[in-house]
Amino acid sequence: MVSQRSRLHRLIDAFRSQRVVLYGDLVLDRFILGSPKRISREAPVIILTFEEQRDVPGGGANALANIVSLGGTALPVAAVGDDEAGRTMLAILAARGVDVGTVVVVPGYRTVTKVRLLAGGPASQRHQVARYDIEDSLDPEGPWLANLLAAIERLAPTAGAAAISDYGYGVVSPEGVARLRAALPGGAPAVADSRFALTRLGTVDGATPNLEELAAVAGVMPRTDDAVAAAAEALRHRLGARFVVATRGSKGLTLAQAEAGAAHIPVYGTDQVADVTGAGDTVLATLTLAIAAGASPLDAAQLANLAGGIVVMKLGTATVAPEELHRAVDLAPFLHD
Fold first, then answer.
1. Closest by CA position to 73, among listed 96, 105, 104
2. Position 132 in a domain
3. Which band of pLDDT confidence, cut at 50, 70 and 90, is reported for residue 273?
4. R_g (Cα) of the chain, nearest Å
């Protein structure tokens, strides 16, 4: 009988041959780094001396980056604006090995950008002092939509699974989800992560809500293991899904799956979290990639939990490498040989 650790190692190695569609909203995470200079005479705020700007993929783009960093092939069904942020996004993804030829460029659309101002010196940890978001919503009847649906029809039949990353900016729709699932080859699953809109997307095969999103569906915040399991199972039934993986921060993950009951997976790592930015995107990417590689929902959730534990120990929006995931499989105390 193959041990749990051996099984997970084999799945990680199998990531290299997997193709995963990412259908969702791309977000540019922009970090402005500076060192504190003095308090302004104009207002009670810190003046920072600019040091550098770092642009990294966020939102669905972070899921794309994680699919690639883990060894898979990422197939984007997404849109950006014809602006500086959109051009930066395409260049960053291309540099990471993503074929961006199917990303729709929408005239007049402002690429969603989240700008974080971080202060700190050479001997101190950076901390966020302010953030502003540049947000826009796509016209649901705009000409961009035909190109996006054409990308679904082109890419989905070549994929082993699809990840849906819905941040509410207009790319993801019930029609798009239905077309995606219909175009995927037989048995290939679609796994959704949606900002408070999971139940409006139609039927999916799996979902990765956080506790706040689970509470929005359940009508109350589930605070115990049993309450989380019950809420996840109710959501799974409502979605017609095979499984739901509820992300619970410092309490790890809870998996609800058809005819198998609930499984609670403890958090991996320490409680010294550096940054939770983008952890949900990492979980979605790892889970979907594992399912594409033939993992059971439980094994896929185990790997997603390890990946999430790794990425929150890194500053900023980050990705996970196969070597890190292999090491976590070896070290995680709750896995068995």
1. 96
2. no
3. low
4. 20
**Residue with more model confidence, 270 or 67:** 67
Residue 103 inside a domain? The answer is yes
pLDDT band at 7 (very low <50, low <70, confident <90, very high): very high
Tell me, yes or no, whether 253 lies in a domain: yes
DSSP string, 50-94: EEEEEEEEEEHHHHHHHHHHTT-EEEEE-EEESSHHHHHHHHHHH
Domain that holds residue 11: 4-24+65-107+139-331
Number of domains in the chain: 1
**At which residue do the structure tokens 């115990």 appear?**
224
Active-site amino acid positions? 281
The CATH number linked to 315 is 3.40.1190.20
Contact assessment for residue 222 and residue 211, using Cβ atoms and an 8 Å cutoff = yes
Query: What sign results for the dihedral spanned by CA atoms 317, 321, 323, 328?
Result: positive
Q: Is the pLDDT of residue 47 over 70?
A: yes
Name the token pair of 286: 């790892």
Is 126 inside any structural domain?
A: no
What digits encode the pLDDT tens for the residues 55-87? 999 999 999 999 999 999 999 999 999 999 999
Q: How many residues does the chain have?
A: 337
pLDDT value at residue 275: 58
